[in-house]
Amino acid sequence: PMLMFGLGGIFVEVMKDVAFHLAPITAEEAMEMLRSTRSYALLEGARGQAGVDLASIASALQRLSQLTTDFPQIVELDINPLIVGAAGTPPIAADVRMTLAAANGAP
User: Fold this and answer.
1) Rounded to a whole number, what is the distance in angstroms from the first to the last CA of the chain?
2) N or C end of the chain, less CB within 10 A?
3) How many structural domains is the chain composed of?
4) Residue 55: which domain range?
5) Residue 26 CB: number of other CB atoms within 10 A?
6) What would the pLDDT profile of 2-49 be if each residue is shown by its tens digit?
7) Is 15 within a domain?
């Protein structure tokens, strides 16, 4: 399975600011996915704005990568948005879309 991380919206559509990695990934590989995006500085906090809980994003990426590895019938899994706050607050998957393979393996 292939993982994709990006802030979504204009950051993906116009700036093409996304990171890809084959699953499964480690926690460190998940953090590297975050660091590799141009929008990482926004996630850390910029111009007086507080940053978000980067560890919770990395943890979510790592766990989702394991989920897609453990359940190969998951053809596609899209979480948009994943709402992330300050450190210590749990992330919220506001909208999730999952496509599963049919019993014969077709999506």
Assistant:
1) 14
2) C
3) 1
4) 2-71
5) 12
6) 999 999 888 888 989 999 999 999 999 999 999 999 999 999 999 999
7) yes
